[in-house]
Amino acid sequence: MVVHPSFPVKTVPEFIAFAKANQRKVNMASAGIGTPSHMSGELFKTMAGIDMAHVPYRGAAPALVDLLGGQVQIFFSSLPSSTAYIRTGDLRALGVTTITRSQTLPDVPPIGDFLPGYEASGITGFGAPKGTPADIIETLNKEVNTGLADPKIKTRLAELGATALPGSPVDFGKLIADETEKWGKVVKSVGIKRG
User: Fold this and answer.
1) 75 sits in which H/E element
2) pTM of the model
3) The sheet that has 74-75: what strands, in order across it?
């Protein structure tokens, strides 16, 4: 959750108070309708009880350019695309969307510290076609978990603002089901339709 440095807030609670006092006057950039940046912002709006004007762009790069130029006030950007601008002071980070602090920006608190239950993380995983034999699934899962335990891979993931989540195929299936339900509710509450 990043803002232009001229924006008059420095914390998530200050942002919420400002947005409540200025309903629909804060412009929230996104990388496009239904993208992670859009959905993260919509979840934030719902949980904070605020209304911001959604400004969808054709990708994260043009959204970031307009945020840097001050045309929009907030963007739920990915860490890899915004970290350099945060470090130079060209953007101000108010919070990360993960449950815990990021190793990339350890001084930036999770939004969930101020909005209990808020969490918006991208998930990358491995899948196999339905009907893949159980022994192959087990072997793949073991090798993926071994890779995720490698210190070099952990370090590289941390540099990208990611965290490894080793586990079983059942764990991953539950995570997918839970996330599908969570984001399905956001899609319905916002009224996003297929284009």
Assistant:
1) strand 74-75
2) 0.88
3) 53-56, 27-30, 74-75, 2-3, 92-93
